[in-house]
Structure formats: structure tokens, C-alpha cells
Amino acid sequence: MCADRTPDPTTGPTPAAGRPGIRTAGPADGSPPVLVHGIRVCARTRDPHTRRPTPRHRVTAPDLPGHRTRRERPLHLEEAVARVQEAALATGRPPLVAGASLGGHVARAAAHPDTAVLVQGATAHPGHTP
């Protein structure tokens, strides 16, 4: 699902300069959403979601630890939050951070006063015991 392939800068995300495992698409002055993937997938799964909004948005998507370019790193919340914060810094301004499933938990944990967060499908609270 996250196989390497040659990026096409005219139609979709390309690697962010100097930031391995972070992909960007859209105009540099576009609004800056950061899309956070769920478990067992990677930043490339967000590529189809960038095709339509890129005329107005500068979409950024990081690979979380334990996934694709970061698969050698164990998945820990602190490191995942750091990856999302690095992606947010790559936007150059306060972004909207959106995530689904695992990405929703990480997006919520990465929340900062200057960051808006959108969570979809994160049904459990981290650390919550039923």
C-alpha cells in the first residue's frame, strides 16, 4: 500500500526538502493542513486527498514512527507527536492538523494553542481502560 514510486510534482505530493518521510503538495502560500495517517498505512495514503484541495492548500503529511520511511523506529506517542510537530513546522505557519484512527490520537496529542485539530474515527482515549 505504501510502495515507493516516482513522485509527480504536477499531480501530487513530493518529499519535503530536508525532511525525510514528510510529503507536501500545493502552493507555498496555500492554507497549511497537516494530514496524519492511521495505523498500518503511511503518508502516501493521503496522496489522493491532496489532489483536489492543492490549488488552495499546502498539504503536508508525515510518516509516523513504525511506518514506511520511519518503519525502523518503534511507535511511541512522544515520537509520533514530534513527527507531527515537525510537519507542522514545515508549513511555516499554524496549521490545521487532521487525523483518523491512530492519526486522530496523535493529532490530538500534538495539539498546540496555535494549532487547530480535526479528529475523525478516534474512538478510544489514550490511556483509557474500559
TrEMBL record:
| Span list, region Disordered | 1-73
Entry keywords, A to Z: Hydrolase
**Source domain of life:** Bacteria
What InterPro entries has UniProt attached to this entry?
AB_hydrolase_1, AB_hydrolase_fold
- The AB hydrolase-1 domain covers 34-122
- Compositionally biased spans, kind Low complexity: 1-21
- Please give the name of this protein: Alpha/beta hydrolase
